[in-house]
Amino acid sequence: MSIRMEPTIFRFPHSRLYDFYTRVFFLKVYEQFAKWIPVDNPQGKVLDVGATAGYLEVALAKIHPGLAVYSTDLSPHMVYLNKKVIKGNNLQGRVVAKREDAYNLSFADNSFDLVINSFTFHHWDKPRRMFSELYRVLKPSGEMFIIDGKKGFNYEEMKQFCRTVGFGILGRTLARVMARLVWIDFVSTGYAQRALSSSSFNKATCEGAGVFMFLHGLKPATA
Ligand SMILES: C[S@@+](CC[C@H](N)C(=O)[O-])C[C@H]1O[C@@H](n2cnc3c(N)ncnc32)[C@H](O)[C@@H]1O
């Protein structure tokens, strides 16, 4: 069974609810994601599109103190929550929260070394347009790295992931319910690969691994 549980833009009060359960259940997940993100330039500029309250950016900035991180979302309330999270973690100046439409970013061409995102790809109804905007703001040789849930993951894969991030009993119970009964409208790796293949990225791959899929693209050095 698949139920569309989420709106595309997380406005108040949905933003508050999402923020609550990410704080309770997902902080360890973002810490794990931050370790997986390929940071080639530890002094570089990173952009997240659809960052919600920015917990992934906080985890990333703690691992790589030299990074300048832009944490963006279209929802004004999410940007407000993100600013509070940045302040609470003393990351002002290193992580910047900004309201941005990922389809139409205000940043100049060739601005970022790395563009990242988690759990948002399945919300993008125009993935090719999104890839072309992300490609535009990346510097030559810059990378795009996107993590999302994989459509059709199974209970064993979810259990394995819970072990990896060290979920306690509450997290494991929630995961069990999610995996067995309801799941958000994640998309298949085939769908993501087709969208990536028609983009301008080099080495554009979508790889399924356990409950996740990883989308990766490289902007050519000569672009
Ligand atoms: C499912 S949440 C995922 C958030 C976060 N990356 C995470 O891992 O929890 C999707 C977010 O994308 C934002 N969003 C949706 N469309 C957007 C757009 N066009 N530009 C910027 N943000 C967008 C929503 O407001 C929401 O906060």
Your description of this structure?
Strands 3-2-1-4-5-7-6 form a seven-stranded mixed sheet, sandwiched between helices. The chain has 223 residues and is of the alpha/beta class. α1 runs parallel beside α2. It is 39% helix and 22% strand. The relative contact order is 0.15. The protein has helices spanning 14-36, 55-63, 76-88, 127-137, 155-165, 169-180, 189-197, and strands at 45-49, 68-73, 95-99, 112-118, 138-149, 202-209, 212-218. The model has no long low-confidence stretch (mean pLDDT 90). S-adenosylmethionine (SAM) binds at residues 6, 8-10, 22, 49-52, 56, 73-75, 78, 100-103, 117-120, 123.
Spell out the key features of this protein.
7 helices, binds S-adenosylmethionine, alpha/beta, Rossmann fold, 39% helix, 223 residues, 7-stranded mixed sheet
Please give a quick description of this structure.
By secondary structure, the protein is of the alpha/beta class. Helix content is 39%, strand content 22%.
Reading the helices and strands in chain order gives HEHEHEEHEHHHEE
Q: C-alpha Rg, in Å?
A: 17 Å
**Tally of separate helices:** 7
CATH topology assignment: Rossmann fold
CATH architecture: 3-Layer(aba) Sandwich
Uncertain parts:
none
What is the mean pLDDT? 90
Q: SS-based structural class?
A: alpha/beta
How many discrete domains?
A: 1
Task: Provide the CATH top-level class.
Answer: Alpha Beta
CATH superfamily: Vaccinia Virus protein VP39
